[in-house]
C-alpha cells in the first residue's frame, strides 16, 4: 500500500471561513475527510499536515524521506518564492503533485510563477478543492508507472 503525505501551507487553515468566492466554502477538515474516504478505493494510506511556517513545512517534507511514496502539496504563497521548500523537495526526491484551488494563472502576476512546479510530477490549478482528489489520483497513477 502506498503512503502519501498531504501538505497544506500558509493560510489554508482558513479555508471555508474567508474568501469563499476564490477558495470555495469547504473547510480543510472537509477536504481531508473527502480524501480519507478515497483511501479504500485507492489502496493508499494518507497523512495530513498543515502549517503556516516555512521551516515546519520543510521539516515535514524531510520526514517523508524513506517514509512516504509521494506528496500532494498546496504550498500556498510559498509556491511563488520558497527556494527553501524547493530544495527540500529536491533533497528528498519524493514524487509530488502541486495543487492550487484557484487558477493562479488568472490572478496577480506574482502567482503565475511556481518555483516548485519544475520538480513536480504535475500541477493542478483552478479546479477548486476537487483538485486535491485529482492530485492524489494523478500522483498514484504516476507511482504505478
Ligand atoms: O489557489 C491556491 O490554492 C493557492 O495556493 C492559495 C494560496 C495563494 O497564495 C496561492 O497563490 C494559490 C493562499 C491560500 C489562502 O487561503 C485562504 C483561505 C481562506 C481565506 C483566506 C485565505
TrEMBL record:
A Gene Ontology molecular function term of the record: 3-dehydroquinate dehydratase activity
Keyword Amino-acid biosynthesis attributed: yes
Pfam family for this entry, one: DHquinase_II
Active site residues according to the UniProt entry: 23, 100
Catalytic activity: 3-dehydroquinate = 3-dehydroshikimate + H2O
Residues that bind substrate: 74, 80, 87, 101-102, 111
SUPFAM superfamilies xrefs: Type II 3-dehydroquinate dehydratase
Enzyme class name: lyase
One of the protein's GO biological processes: chorismate biosynthetic process
Pathway: Metabolic intermediate biosynthesis; chorismate biosynthesis; chorismate from D-erythrose 4-phosphate and phosphoenolpyruvate: step 3/7
Residue(s) at site: Transition state stabilizer: 18
Record carries keyword Lyase: yes
Enzyme Commission number(s) from the entry: 4.2.1.10
This protein's UniProt keywords: Amino-acid biosynthesis, Aromatic amino acid biosynthesis, Lyase
Subunit structure: Homododecamer.
Family: Belongs to the type-II 3-dehydroquinase family.
Protein role: Catalyzes a trans-dehydration via an enolate intermediate.
Protein name as it appears in the record: 3-dehydroquinate dehydratase
Organism: Acidithrix ferrooxidans
Amino acid at each position: 500500500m502506498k503512503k502519501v503525505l498531504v501538505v497544506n501551507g500558509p493560510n489554508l487553515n482558513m479555508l471555508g471561513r474567508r474568501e469563499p468566492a476564490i477558495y470555495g466554502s469547504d473547510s480543510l477538515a472537509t477536504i481531508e475527510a473527502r480524501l480519507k474516504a478515497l483511501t479504500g478505493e485507492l489502496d493508499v494510506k494518507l497523512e495530513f499536515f498543515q502549517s503556516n511556517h516555512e521551516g515546519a513545512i520543510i521539516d515535514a517534507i524531510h520526514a517523508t524521506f524513506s517514509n512516504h511514496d509521494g506528496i500532494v502539496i498546496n504550498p500556498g504563497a510559498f509556491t511563488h518564492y520558497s527556494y527553501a521548500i524547493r530544495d527540500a523537495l529536491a533533497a528528498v526526491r519524493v514524487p509530488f503533485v502541486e495543487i492550487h484551488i484557484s487558477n493562479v494563472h488568472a490572478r496577480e502576476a506574482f502567482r503565475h510563477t511556481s518555483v516548485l512546479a519544475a520538480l513536480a510530477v504535475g500541477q493542478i490549478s483552478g479546479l477548486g478543492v476537487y483538485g486535491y482528489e485529482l492530485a492524489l489520483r494523478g500522483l498514484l497513477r504516476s507511482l504505478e508507472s
